[in-house]
Each structure stands twice: as structure tokens, then as C-alpha cells.
Amino acid sequence: GASGAVGSPSLVARVGGEDYFTDENRVLKRDPQQDYHLEYAMENSTHTILAFSRELHTCDTNDKSITESTVRVIWAYHHKDMGEAGQNYHGSNRGTKSLRLLNPEREEVSSASLPYFDLTNKDVPVPDKDTTYWCQMFKIPVQHEKHHVTKVEPLIQKGHENLVHHILLYQCSSNLNDSVLDYGHECYHPNMPDSFLTCETVIFAWAIGGEGFTYPPHVGLSIGTAADPLFVLMEVHYDNPSFTEGLIDNSGLRLIYTPVLRKYDAGVIEAGLWVSLFHNIPPGMPEFVSEGHCTLECLEEALGAERPAGIQVFAVLLHAHLAGRAIRMRHFHNGEEQDLLAYDDEFDFNFQEFQYLKEERTILPGDNLVTECHYNTVDRIRMTWGGLSTRNEMCLSYLLYYPRINLTRCASIPDIMEQLQFIGVKEIYRPVRTWPFIIKSPKQYKNLSFMDAMNKFKWSRSEGLSYNQLVLKLPVNVRCSKTDNAEWSIQGMTALPPEIERPYKTEPVICSSSSCLNCCSFLILLCIVYITASTIGNTESFV
């Protein structure tokens, strides 16, 4: 039969019934510790299916532990059996795909007979530039009677899977009229329509590599009432690093809904670091950690006023850009750290989707939520700035929860003054409240902007580490937003981050057969799917 391979950065293979691995030279070697067990094998004229099981943690240095993080599954096969001379080269019969093997099962409700509506761009000319954010206003067609959206699916134009990086759907002011529907425009542009400024509340988020999202059976996205979105803004992030000309896009979202109401209305909270130049990462750093705080002050005010019993989080989307390597959402209650709310220690920029939580998590007034992002800038010679481009960075978490309350954003901005002092700035010409501001002294930075001065500073790894330790301790400016551009009273206040143990203390790995009790079915399903797919012509290469 054909040979198959599966694994992560350290490839693990099932070849001729034995466990193999590969090193940095990509040469297959027989693993002296055999941890993979063949459960089932079948071959016909068109397909080869291999089903195997293994423990989640084998404690074999040649194996990759299987966790809730992203796993890069690499497959390769040859049409001929392995001979005495060893394995045959797979040629173009190879590929890779990022997956979450341990995503919890979710109850799927058939949506085949349910009504839906599409929100799609119409022949958008994607500019031949690195990054474009395109905004289009839509009117929800379901009005006058409450319904629940039960599923949202991406509609990505064929061939544009790498062009469309993410899609955000915002709720806008209900006081708009149909004249705002006439045309789309670049977002965050000086000439964009004023109506776009009324759209601040995120109601759904999708990112590259993700699939459709199904709400739990007891929760739905409410539409059709006066409190629900009537006008929505769809923001599409186009990533065109090759500056390709003549691209026309018609991507968007499909919303499937039902008149049979669920028990709870879903809400979305954007948490983490406010996207701004105050978030910055030095060059040449193998690891740099940024933290965005959903502060106890914001949650105390918002939840205390609207939901003292707390909210239930059921899914989280962790979001960063190209320098991102790992993201964790840490949860503190009464100052005590709880289990991680969500994490991805193998973050893949090209695979970002909502993670369903194994168990819903209660967030109470006075809790702290910390979005912790790990970056690698070894290949960069200039500062990396918080911003919209994929070459800029973000550190965000989108929390799906119920019941819906009037809290849309719970984020923070690090204090800027000590960042300036770290590189030796003594005086600026204008108050820090305005941007951009110009440095007055010392002489080497005179008349430079903050960005220019940070780039001029001679960064070493030791300086970068010291800077990282500084920014993690800085007071933060609280962002605590409601719908319709309103703010909770804590907005703009200064708060101190919680006492955080760094690095995060992970659970000890248990190497026993019991660790495989829940893994076998996941791995069997994986093998059947990807080996079958490999025979149908998927030839994505890996290196």
C-alpha cells in the first residue's frame, strides 16, 4: 500500500508499520521508541486509509505532544510500497494543513432547511498594495420579528483564500438610512463616509484558515428587534504582499438563521491590546511578550451594572499577525489565576478560528482577563508597530459569550512616558495626548518623532529584554466601550495590571496510557480524512 506521513514541525510517520521521525535535514529515521499503533488499514483502487492511535504525551523526544494548540499536519505518500532499499521519495504527493486535533465536539443542528442571507462584496477592485481594509454597509433583511442566527459561514471567492485575511462584522447606528448602502470604501480613510464611524460593535469575526461557526444549541445571534443590528458594516482585510494588479473580489459571509428562538442572545467582546503605535516590539528578538488587559475596573463597572451574576464565555478567537508565535488568554478571579481561558502555543498566522471551550467559563465583576502574545522578530531590523497591516502587529481576543450585555471592547494601552524614557528621551514639544509628537531633547533625538527615535535606538537582545520587562509592568490606559460609540465611565482611566507569574506555569505532562483515552477517535478521523484527500490531488508542498 501507499505510505503515509503525519506530524508537526518534527515529522512523525507511519511507514511500513513502523514509527519514523525526521530531523532538520528532513531524513526519515526509525524511531527507537515505537508509540504509534495501527488500528485499521484499507486499500482499494482509489484510496488508502490508515487509522492509528497514540498517547497525547509519549514523552519521546522524537514525538510532538498533542495539545489544544494548533498542530501542523504534514502528509506525504508514494504510489509504490517501501522496498528493501528504504522509503521512496514522495515527489509532489505531499502537503500540509494546520488543525486543532483536540477541539471539543459540538452539537451540530442541521441547517439545510433553514433560511439564510449573504453579505458579500460586489466586484471590489483590490488595490495593488500590501494591505487594504475594505468596508461595505449592509442592511439586515430580517426585521420586525426576533430571529436567531445559528451559523455563520465564510464565502471566500475561489482562488482568493490567501488574499482575504479576515472579515469583521460591526453593528452600526440604527438611525442611518438606506442611502449609506450605495457603495463601499476603504476603511480608516480620510474620505470614507461618516456613517462608517457609527460602526464600533463587533458582532462576528472570521480569520484566514477558519471554517464556518455554529452557535451552541442554547445560544444565537439575535436579529430582528430594535436592540439588534439593522445596519452592519463588513470589514474585509485584503493581504496582497506581492502587489498583484487587477484583483476583483466578491467574498463575504453567509448568515443562517431560524425563527425558533434559543434561550440566550450571544454577544462579542474584543479584549486585548488597543491597536496603536503604543504597542511596539524591538527588532531581533527571539521572543517578546506583549499583554493586553481587560481590567477588573472595566469588568466591575460593566458587569456590575448589567450582569452581576456574570457572563458565560463559550468560544474565543485569538488574533495576531505575522510575528505572532503563541497567544494565551489568562483569567484572574479575586487576584487568583484560574486555568487558561484559551491558548495556542503553536499559533499559525494562516489558521485563525474560534476555539470552542471544553466547558463554558463564567466571567464575574472584578475579574481580570489578560491576552498574552508572544512574538519573534529575529528576521526584522526595524521596530514592529501595532497597526492594521499584517507586517504590523495585534494582540487581541474575541470572546463569544451570553447573555449579551452592553460591553463591546475591554482593552488597554500601555503608558507611553516610560517607553520614551527607556530610550533616553527627556523632553517633547507637545503633550503626549496628541499624535504624532516631536522630541525636543536630547540632541540625538531632537525633532524626531517617537517612531523615528525608537528605530534610531540601537537595540540589542539584552536591551530588548530589559524593555520587555519594563512594558509588562507599566500602568495601562483603560478602554471600556459600549455600543453606539458610548463609553463606560472608567474609559481613559489609568489602572495597574494584576500580579502575574511569568512565564505561565503549565500543567505537568503525564506519560501514561490514560492520556490516550480521548485521543484515538480524533487521530483515526484525521488519518481517514487526510490520506483520502492526498489521493485526490492536493499537492501543497512543505519544506
Number of strands: 37
- Which strands sit side by side, in order, in the main sheet? 29-25-32-22-33-36-37
The tally of structural domains comes to 3
> What is the terminal separation in angstroms?
25 Å
Pfam families: Cu2_monoox_C (PF03712), Cu2_monooxygen (PF01082), DOMON (PF03351)
GO molecular function, one term: dopamine beta-monooxygenase activity
Keywords: Copper, Disulfide bond, Endoplasmic reticulum, Glycoprotein, Membrane, Metal-binding, Monooxygenase, Oxidoreductase, Signal, Transmembrane, Transmembrane helix
Domain DOMON: 1-78
General description of the model:
The structure is a single chain. With 543 residues, the protein is mainly beta. The chain has three domains: 4-101 and 519-534, no CATH class; 116-414, Jelly Rolls (Sandwich); 417-473, no CATH class. Helices cover 9% and strands 36% of the residues. The protein has five helices and 37 strands. The strands form ten sheets. The protein has a seven-stranded mixed β-sheet, covered by helices on one side. Strands 9, 12, 16, 17, 20 and 21 form a six-stranded mixed β-sheet that branches. Strand 3 (18-22) and strand 4 form a beta hairpin. Mean pLDDT is 84; it is low at 1-16 and 513-543. It is a single-pass type I membrane protein. Keywords: Copper, Disulfide bond, Endoplasmic reticulum, Glycoprotein, Membrane, Metal-binding, Monooxygenase, Oxidoreductase, Signal, Transmembrane, Transmembrane helix. InterPro entries: Cu2_ascorb_mOase-like_C, Cu2_ascorb_mOase_N, Cu2_ascorb_mOase_N_sf, Cu2_monoox_C, DBH-like, DOH_DOMON, DOMON_domain, PHM/PNGase_F_dom_sf.
